[in-house]
Design brief:
Strand content: under 5%
Number of helices: 15
Structural class: mainly alpha
Distance between the termini: 26 Å
Radius of gyration: 23 Å
Largest sheet: none
Order of helices and strands: HHHHHHHHHHHHHHH
Helix content: over 70%
Number of strands: 0
């Protein structure tokens, strides 16, 4: 069930950041004006102060994932099987059994096991992410410099220097782990799981137009040799 935990973690990440088209990524990484970057860097330092990622990925994420896990495990197993590709009519014939009920039989310590994973993995992830906060701040500053002009950056900086602005800026990144926000997201999860089969079907027609991926036997000898060289091992074993 570790894959379930990973799925929950990924669902909590900003989906838009994972799905940008190539053109948007190219635009976002275009060089920025050094003068604008200099104005944007103090803003990024307020919004992403030292220790933010460790707090978010540690205690805050632990509080978030626990309730999400509880909500997911109380859903009927058939909903997960539909997402996995099982025919909806066949899955509906499985009844209302939940993962929680199934694991109570298979692994009575399932919940404790998940708690151990959450309580160890999340703090470790926070420590890892914390090492990259300087890079994240610089990327944030570059994004601000790309999106705002000098006057706008001056106005943002002025606001962040006020007591209200400072409070807003320092807590902005942590809003995603606020119980009020997470509570709303939890309510969405069951509907999201039920809708996932239809969401996945939205791409089926277009995918059907594409040639199927080739197997090892479809490759020429030159392609096989090249694949083996890239893998550093017999490509046939990876087929």
């Amino acid at each position: 069930m570790r894959s379930l935990l990973l799925s929950l973690f990924l669902l909590s990440a900003p989906v838009a950041a994972q799905a940008q088209p190539a053109s948007a990524q190219a635009e976002a990484t275009a060089p920025v004006d050094p003068a604008l970057l200099a104005k944007a860097q103090p803003i990024a330092s307020v919004i992403l102060p030292n220790g933010t990622m460790e707090r978010m990925m540690g205690p805050m994420m632990q509080k978030m994932i626990g309730p999400m896990m509880d909500g997911m495990t109380k859903m009927p197993i058939r909903e997960f099987l539909k997402v996995g590709g099982m025919d909806p009519e066949q899955a509906d014939g499985l009844g209302e059994a939940t993962i929680e009920q199934m694991m109570a039989i298979i692994d009575p310590n399932f919940r404790k096991r998940m708690d151990v994973i959450v309580n160890t993995m999340m703090p470790a992830m926070g420590r890892f992410m914390g090492r990259y906060e300087p890079d994240m701040r610089e990327g944030m500053a570059e994004a601000f410099a790309h999106r705002y002009d000098a006057a706008e950056l001056d106005q943002i900086a002025a606001f962040l220097k006020t007591p209200t602005g400072g409070k807003f800026g320092a807590g902005f990144m942590e809003l995603a782990t606020d119980p009020h926000y997470i509570g709303r997201m939890q309510k969405i999860m069951p509907d999201m799981m039920r809708a996932m089969p239809d969401i996945l079907k939205s791409s089926e027609a277009e995918l059907a137009k594409l040639p199927k991926p080739r197997t090892y036997n479809d490759l020429s000898k030159a392609e096989r040799d090249r694949l083996t060289a890239l893998l550093g091992a017999d490509a046939k074993k990876a087929n």
